[in-house]
Amino acid sequence: MSIQICALAAPISTKNVGIENARRSVTYHPSVWGDYFLEYTSDLTDILTHEEQEHQILKEEVNKLLAATPDDFAHKLDLVDSIQRLGVGVFDKFKDKQGKFDESLVSNVQGLLSLYEAAQFRVHGEETLEEALTFSITHLNSLILQVSNSLSGQIREALEMPIHKTLTRLGARRFLSIYQQDESQNDILLNFAKLDFNLLQKMHQKELYNITRAYFEEAKWAYNGYLPIDMEEYMKVAVTSSGYIMLSTTCLVGMGELVTKEAFDWISSESIAVKGSAIIARLMDDMAGHGVTSLNSII
């Protein structure tokens, strides 16, 4: 059974009022999301067992594709990776005897796209990479109206937002729409990408649901002048609204290979140590917030 919750203003209550003098409040515009994340049904956000199993099977199939004997597709992937990792010297292989970029590259749209994406990693003073970027942009623009719709869309997307300038998952979502129209698409890779994206989206939606509900509960407390009966009631909401448990995972970011999957699983399991640090962070934030609101008389 789904529970419908509407974020309507609760009536003013005199129960458990702990604010003797009404304080000035600040008017904020309504959330652009409305009540979307307050309406929760488990079938929309819970990751099912069969989805996890299918995700793992497809992941193994993709690994097999990458480990298989290289074909043109694999060579292109390797080309992009090599260009990005090896730097300027590699680009000389794309030049003719006159030191200009070989015009034969124009007939290979995927090769041009790879060259364009790799050239994005240039730094000031790298003339070869500047030439590569100018060359690839010029010819990609000229090819937009000459290639299939899927390739044309891929070119437009790349020119508007190169891979390294976009958010990975946002770019992936936009590229999925283009890739599934590609006649040379790999069904295993496409299905894995779709499922992987959907599972992550479910995780994000559930996280947003939890924190939005906590914000909503605190908003009702403030509106009604209600004080939680005890610390346990308060912490059930306040620890979530602090966002610290979600933020704690960033403590592991940047540590590279020192951090294992088990470490992320541990911190995501909300162990006693994580919960304890979340409570400390919540209380420190409350003490700082109390000082600010006391000075400004703002809820």
TrEMBL record:
Keywords: Metal-binding
UniProt domain Terpene synthase N-terminal: residue ranges: 90-159
Terpene synthase metal-binding domain span: 200-290
SUPFAM superfamilies found in the cross-reference section: Terpenoid cyclases/Protein prenyltransferases, Terpenoid synthases
Record flagged with keyword Metal-binding: yes
GO MF entries: lyase activity; metal ion binding
Keyword ATP-binding included in the entry's annotation: no
Pfam families in the cross-refs: Terpene_synth (PF01397), Terpene_synth_C (PF03936)
InterPro entries in UniProt: Isoprenoid_synthase_dom_sf (IPR008949), Terpene_synth_N (IPR001906), Terpene_synth_N_sf (IPR036965), Terpene_synthase-like (IPR050148), Terpene_synthase_metal-bd (IPR005630), Terpenoid_cyclase/PrenylTrfase (IPR008930)
Protein name: Germacrene-D synthase
Species whose genome carries this gene: Forsythia ovata
